Amino acid sequence: LLRDKFREFSRDTSAIGQERLNGANAAADALIAAGHPDNASVAEWKDALNEAWADLLELMDTRAQMLAASYELQRFHHEARQTLAQVREKQKLLPEELGKDLGTAEAMERLHSAQERDIQALSAQVRQVQEDAARLAQAYAGAKAAEIRQDEAGGSQAWAELRGRSQSRRRLLRDTVEHFRFLRSARDLLLWMEAVGRQMEAHQRPR
């Protein structure tokens, strides 16, 4: 990464430059202390060197801050788009089938419970993207701020749609399971009544 390379460059440059500047300052101080005839010129050169070094350090610090900000922005866009892709993948995994009998409907309901846990695991990731977007949008303006809001909005909308579909499917599956359970109970009751009727027709004492 460019940021890491510059950090290494800045660290090495600062160490080497400070060592060389210390040497130059020591040599200037020695000349001045010895009463060199060009003391005034030596002092001016010393001040100029220290001022230039301070300017260079400030420039490197500014550059490091810019690279850090750029890295953070790029990281946000990457994570926002990755989160959106994961949300859309979860949407694709939600089937439409509800089951053709009680057994398959209950199996579908158990599968959906597992899928809901997977979906819930994404909530922290989505929330982090939203928080990062709110913070970064305050630091940028114009096109960059618009891109930040666009990435956040896309993820938030897809997340809301996924949760809505998941909740709707849970209700449908619950209704389907209850429907099949009612049908099974009704069939069992009908069979029992038919059996009682047959006993009465056979002049047996109903049990």
TrEMBL record:
Entry keyword annotation includes Repeat: yes
Protein name as catalogued: SPTN2 protein
**Which Pfam families does this one have?**
Spectrin (PF00435)
Gene3D superfamilies per the record? Answer: 1.20.58.60
Q: Which InterPro entries match?
A: Spectrin/alpha-actinin, Spectrin_repeat
In its UniProt record, a GO molecular function of this protein is: actin binding
The yes or no answer to whether the keyword Repeat is present is yes
* Keyword terms: Actin-binding, Coiled coil, Repeat
User: What organism does the record attribute this protein to?
Assistant: Eubucco bourcierii
Q: SUPFAM superfamilies this protein is in?
A: Spectrin repeat (SSF46966)
Annotated coiled-coil segments of the chain: 105-139
